[in-house]
């Protein structure tokens, strides 16, 4: 019974580490996609009195990247972990005091070639010096720590170093470069770390966590295409920063143009082209037009205007 209680405590000690995958290109601003990822973890107790166990965690990732890149084109991938903390307040089954030897892995996307990589930044991650290395189709970031837990008296929010990778698009036209996390099993993990738990009924424990995304979703996709730009949008009405008297009728006017690209599939505003915009109440308003081309690339433009009371 005691071992089961401690095992549950170790399972609850899983650290919420979220990654942010950032792909950049020169033509259009990157898009951002939010994705929820479930991790499956094996918890090795490293103590003969406590059995190994498993656990699961759910994290949300923000992935930014270009919608398209030209064949053979170079682009940057920047991956950074969301700031995180883990509960270090005492419990009846022990106190999580720190984590160390945190290693997270990012896959070099299929249909691309790794040119170079580097790490920078990081805060509240202990005295150890973080490092990065490449192994096959994976870039590995190691943070020795120790990273202190967060308590009511001494809160701690850690930020891991950001990983930057320069890639070359190597696939054929219309193939995709999908940004994903590494890890397929407990023995081929995407995230590992060691935990120190003090004050348990059998003393200090030092369990090890080995986790992989299950399933492993695509965080962001980039199309290899000769058309690397989303459609251009022009908003004639409402005018940016315009002041409009309450109740005035102003008809929306906008257009979308893909130039020499693959063509516009849709061009949609907050209201239809030629319809009246919102001037019913006083305050700041926004008007957005979204254009999608025939490859699915999306462009968005927003203007703001202020509705003012009649004089």
What's the layout of helices and strands?
Elements: H1 2-12, E1 18-24, E2 31-44, E3 53-65, E4 68-69, E5 74-82, E6 95-107, E7 112-120, E8 131-135, E9 138-143, E10 147-148, E11 162-169, E12 176-179, E13 191-200, E14 203-205, E15 208-213, E16 220-224, E17 232-237, E18 242-245, E19 253-257, E20 264-269, E21 283-293, E22 298-308
Descriptive labels:
311 residues, mainly beta, Immunoglobulin-like, 4-stranded antiparallel β-sheet, 1 helix, 51% strand, disordered N terminus
In short:
With 311 residues, the protein is mainly beta. It contains one helix and 22 strands. A hairpin with an 8-residue loop joins strand 2 and strand 3.
Please describe what this structure looks like.
With 311 residues, the chain is mostly beta strands. Helix content is 4%, strand content 51%. The longest helix has 11 residues, at 2-12. It is globular.
Which stretches are poorly predicted, pLDDT < 50 over at least 5 residues? 1-26
Structural class: mainly beta
Mean pLDDT over all positions:
89
**In angstroms, what is the radius of gyration?**
25 Å
What percentage of residues falls in helices of 4 or more residues?
A: under 10%
């Amino acid at each position: 019974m005691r071992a089961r209680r401690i095992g549950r405590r170790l399972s609850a000690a899983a650290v919420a580490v979220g990654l942010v995958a950032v792909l950049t290109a020169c033509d259009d601003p990157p898009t951002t996609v939010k994705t929820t990822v479930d991790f499956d973890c094996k918890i090795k107790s490293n103590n003969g009195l406590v059995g190994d166990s498993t656990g699961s965690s759910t994290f949300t990732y923000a992935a930014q990247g270009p919608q398209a890149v030209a064949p053979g084109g170079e682009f940057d991938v920047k991956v950074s972990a969301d700031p995180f903390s883990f509960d270090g307040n005492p419990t009846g089954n022990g106190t999580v005091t720190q984590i160390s030897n945190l290693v997270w892995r990012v896959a070099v996307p299929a249909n691309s070639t790794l040119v170079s990589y580097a790490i920078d930044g990081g805060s509240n991650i202990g005295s150890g010096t973080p490092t990065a290395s490449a192994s096959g189709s994976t870039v590995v970031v190691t943070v020795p720590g120790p990273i202190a837990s967060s308590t009511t008296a001494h809160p701690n929010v850690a930020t891991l170093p950001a990983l930057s990778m320069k890639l070359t698009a190597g696939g054929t036209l219309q193939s995709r470069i999908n940004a994903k996390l590494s890890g397929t099993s407990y023995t081929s993990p995407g995230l590992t770390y060691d935990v120190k738990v003090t004050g348990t009924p059998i003393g200090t424990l030092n369990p090890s966590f080995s986790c992989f995304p299950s399933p492993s979703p695509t965080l962001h996709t980039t199309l290899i295409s000769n058309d690397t730009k989303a459609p251009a949008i022009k908003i004639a009405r409402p005018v940016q920063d315009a002041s409009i008297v309450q109740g005035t009728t102003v008809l929306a006017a906008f257009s979308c143009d893909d130039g020499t690209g693959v063509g516009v599939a849709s061009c949609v505003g907050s209201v239809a082209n030629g319809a009246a915009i919102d001037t019913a109440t006083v305050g700041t308003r926004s008007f957005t037009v979204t254009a999608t081309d025939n490859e699915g690339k999306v462009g968005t433009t927003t203007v703001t205007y202020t509705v003012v009371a009649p004089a």
